[in-house]
Amino acid sequence: MIADLKISLCDLSMALSDVMDLVSPVFSGHHRQVAYIALSISREMGLPESERSTIAFAAALHDMGALSVRERVSAMEFEVVQPHAHAEHGYSLLRTFAPLAEAADIIRLHHVRWDERLDSEVVEAAGGNVPLGSYIVHISDRIAVLIDRTRDVLSQSGSIRDRIARESGAMFMPELVDVFEKLANREYFWLDLSSPSVGSVLHKRMHKADVELDFDMLLSLADLFRRTIDFRSRFTATHSAGVAAVAESLASRIGFSRRECLHMEVAGYLHDLGKLAIPTELLEKPGRLSPEEMNVMKSHTFYTYRTLESIPELSTIAEWAAFHHERIDGTGYPFKLSRKELPIGSRVMAVADVFTALTEDRPYRKGMSPEQAARVIRKMADGQALDPDVASEALTDLESINQARIDAQSKSTIEYDSFSSIPTEGRSAASD
Ligand SMILES: [Fe+2]
Ligand SMILES: [Fe+2]
Ligand SMILES: [Fe+2]
Fold it and tell me: Domains along the chain?
């Protein structure tokens, strides 16, 4: 049923950067714009193809470590007050994934000013060397934040050029300001930048140096996405690790092949991908959500689906991942699918999501015991919300399924503790 996958790293990175930019209209297309500028500068400088593409990947993901909307808004100011925390978080998320390890190094220092490079604690902590790519992402990012999206772009190009030129040798490496000057002289540079099709231009240019991921790489990238999704908040820090473990173990009980079980694990890691488009402030709201907030929250599975289905090779994983709030009687959201339209993998994911949500500890409450959770699941299966067959399979070996969840979440807690010990702008570690 499932063939070997070969997936483009470029497609996956772009998908991640797009969904991150959906969190507020203020950021719409920001990562694409910065990637376009960075790639244009690298080309103009004649950098080798592979270096260009590393820089473009770094640019496409540069703010992935900005966890809250507030932190992202402050990174959109021309002069960011405390810029390095989100850079360090981004580095710490990305560095474990070998094909993007160099991009992680670039992201780590993407806010270092040229005139502070020799006297910077951040640079020292990173080993004393600032990659050229960091300076390129820095200037590209600052050019992008100067663009007022409500006005015609060509009419602003003069003032943006002046602003950037004033910072030559101060904020920016002089050579890069000169390269930008050349680009800025060409109208098409600005028109590309403000065009909705900037993504496809980018795609064409990055295509040559793209990397095809095999399944193991996909699993490792999905795990990286999992941390990017969950670590935005301590409220969700271990959720997808738990869901993936439960879904995988349930799938193997039901008779999925080994390969299908691994696909289930990937789907579990990605099931809440669309939460990247939900403000952290909402994920962490104490108490009940208002009807309007609930509607915003409900959009997360929609974004999971639309993001993953844009990559044709992931169509099955997209369905398994994104339909976890659909209910077999058709009362779920957002597609209102019912039992016969829901693949078995999606029905497994729904049970895994409910079981994990009920049993996991949250910062504000203890998780239910497996027996209490079993009662809730049985009731939901009787009420035609969850698939009765899948539910009864889960209930027959609750102990081992629960143990798989506990093991995965304990491991993830250790990862999260180390991630959240990185101090964050304007707040102490691990207490957003
Ligand atoms: Fe940034
Ligand atoms: Fe940025
Ligand atoms: Fe969800």
Answer: 7-198 (1.10.3210.10), 225-420 (1.10.3210.10)
